[in-house]
From TrEMBL:
Protein name: BTB/POZ domain-containing protein KCTD9
GO annotation terms (biological process): protein homooligomerization
All residue ranges annotated as the BTB domain in the record: 90-160
Record function comment: Substrate-specific adapter of a BCR (BTB-CUL3-RBX1) E3 ubiquitin-protein ligase complex, which mediates the ubiquitination of target proteins, leading to their degradation by the proteasome.
Length: 388
């Protein structure tokens, strides 16, 4: 092709040269003819030519040694200074991948972003350019593409296989604040729904068998609601804040288990071994604890301080030395229970059935026994115990 090539920075006279082969050949010929080291070729509108196939026969080309394109008809003034706009085209080299866009795309939608500050004014940040004149940005191109598209049309579109967390990190890096919220919502919606379904007996038994005997088993906060855990060996297991409502724990061995703040409402614990159990502030309202054993021969006392035991049925349970301080036992059935040496200070025993109970050496100081039934007690209740 015959192409006219001018070099504003080297000479004011245009030269006509014959060009064959590749773009490299063109640059070589231009270098020899014009006496410069030509590195870039632009068309008459300032578009960077990166393939000789893009050149038409009647094109006027501008060759330079790497300087930005300057139209000689503008007396050397940058295009945006003449038009007052920032819509000139530019190319970004992001991690080795080229993106062509306008300055207004990078600036207008998010004027306070890093990209806006980088390209609001030419060379304000001293942006580095590669041999093709593209601005170098050392970030991931696959995560940058959705960000550029968002700046173009305001929609978050991410192709399959692109990690949203990576795009979010890039949005934070470039300060695209309005996109960050969209991405956080998209990430949340893409997460699988949390499984809050209760753990079954089969699942829990498998879990127990897979755990070494000497290992501490932590079931804190887990959901066992309605599960059949009867007759299982649950010694020393941490059930703190677990949901055990409506569970069947009859005949289970809960020796020294931690049931602090656990929900045991409506559960069945008949004949369970509760030696040394910790049930501080637990909720066992309406539960059945008939015939349970809280008495530890070694002297370790069960602790139910502050527990909600409204309406529980604890008939016939062994509770020697148990700590029920400030617990709520309103309307509970405690008939024939062994409460010898129990701590019942500040306990609400209103309307409790305590008939047949052994309360010898029990501490009832400050407890509420309004409406409680004490008939047929094995040990007379002395006034020195300061009940109210």
């Amino acid at each position: 092709r015959n192409c006219m090539n001018t070099v504003p920075i080297a000479t004011s006279l245009p030269q006509v040269v014959a060009v064959y082969g590749t773009l490299s050949d063109l640059l070589s010929v231009a270098s020899n003819k014009l006496g410069i080291k030509a590195t870039s070729v632009y068309n008459g509108k300032g578009g960077l030519i990166d393939d000789i196939a893009l050149i038409r026969d009647d094109d006027v080309l501008f060759v330079c040694e790497g300087e930005p394109f300057i139209d000689p008809q503008t007396d050397g003034r940058p295009h945006e200074e003449l038009t007052g706009s920032h819509t000139d085209w530019l190319t970004l080299n992001v991690g080795g991948r080229y993106f062509t866009t306008t300055r207004s795309t990078l600036v207008n939608k998010e004027p306070d972003s890093m990209l806006a500050h980088m390209f609001k004014d030419k060379d304000a940040w001293g942006n580095k350019q590669d041999h093709r004149g593209a601005f170098l940005i050392d970030r991931s191109p696959e995560y940058f593409e959705p960000i550029l598209n968002y700046l173009r049309h305001g929609q978050l579109i991410v192709n399959d296989g692109i990690n949203l967390l990576g795009v979010l990190e890039e949005a934070r890096f470039f300060g695209i604040d309005s996109l960050i919220e969209h991405l956080e919502i998209a990430i949340k919606n893409s997460q699988p729904a949390e499984d809050h379904s209760p753990i079954s007996r089969k699942e829990f038994v498998r879990f127990l068998l897979a755990t070494p005997t000497k290992s501490e088993l932590r079931c804190q906060g887990l959901n066992f609601s309605g599960a059949d855990l009867s007759r299982l060996d649950l010694r020393y297991i941490n059930f703190k804040m677990a949901n055990l409502s409506r569970c069947n724990l009859a005949h289970a061995n809960l020796c020294c288990a931690n049931l602090e703040r656990a929900d045991l409402s409506g559960s069945v614990l008949d004949c369970a071994n509760l030696q040394g159990v910790k049930m501080l502030c637990s909720n066992a309202e309406g539960a059945s604890l008939k015939g349970c054993n809280f008495e530890d021969p070694s002297g370790l006392k069960a602790n139910l301080e502050g527990a909600n035991l409204k309406g529980v049925d604890m008939e016939g349970s062994q509770m020697t030395g148990i700590n029920l301080r400030v617990a709520t036992l309103k309307n509970a059935k405690l008939k024939n229970c062994n409460l010898r040496g129990a701590t019942l200070a500040g306990t609400d025993l209103e309307n409790c059935d305590l008939s047949g109970c052994d309360l010898q050496e029990a501490n009832l100081r400050g407890s509420n026994v309004k409406g409680a039934i004490f008939e047929e007690m094995l040990t007379p209740l002395h006034m020195s115990q300061s009940v109210r």
